[in-house]
Amino acid sequence: MESKEILLNTLLKNNKIILSELTTEDIGDEHISTSLDTPLRRDAFDLSDAEKIRKIESHFREIMETLGLDLSDDSLNGTPHRVAKMYVEEIFSGLSPANKPKIALFENKYQYNQMLIEKDITFYSNCEHHFVPIIGKAHLAYISSGKVIGLSKLNRIVNYFAKRPQVQERLTMQIAKELQEILGTKDVAVLIDAKHLCVSSRGIKDNSSATVSSFYDGKFLEEKTKEEFLKYVSLKTDY
Ligand SMILES: [Zn+2]
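Output (structure tokens, whole complex):
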């Protein structure tokens, strides 16, 4: 599989792309993001979830009708409501801070000060430029500064940030920054390997490419530690 590597630490320092010189298509096809925070409106949470579902349902009905679909057909009739409910309650539920996972930390009783890795966390996200799926695996690692986190919580953090319209670089950074904050350490690594359906099913229709993005900070900036992490991530297990 051919893969495109994005090294975030380098990318961010040189992140001086002038967006006004690019067309809407360029921004979408190159999957350029403008900030680390998900761009949200000030009034993002003024409406309740139920109100959002009602509003999206009516707009989505209009999209389908504009496409020429006959919504009196039994198969299509419930689609606007299903899509609206899925957007708000499932695939974009990570936009709301109310859905952020509550994380409890434990004392690191065993004084385990080695690298802790949770790999192959499957996630489903959506590209913010085309609103079609990004499917991938996230690999996270940290070195405890005295606290440890429940392993299932790492999955929850990945999935919270994945359930937003995303670009892969931002997803990587948001997960990494959250881990650093919760764990109180800079020693965090995040590697994401994902397939963007907007690349494979439309546009350049490249079916075999994957995008790899990574974030390394603290001790993971040291070559030895980074290599150890990458070695564990690529380890093929048979269980
Ligand atoms: Zn896209």
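The two ends are 24 Å apart (CA to CA).
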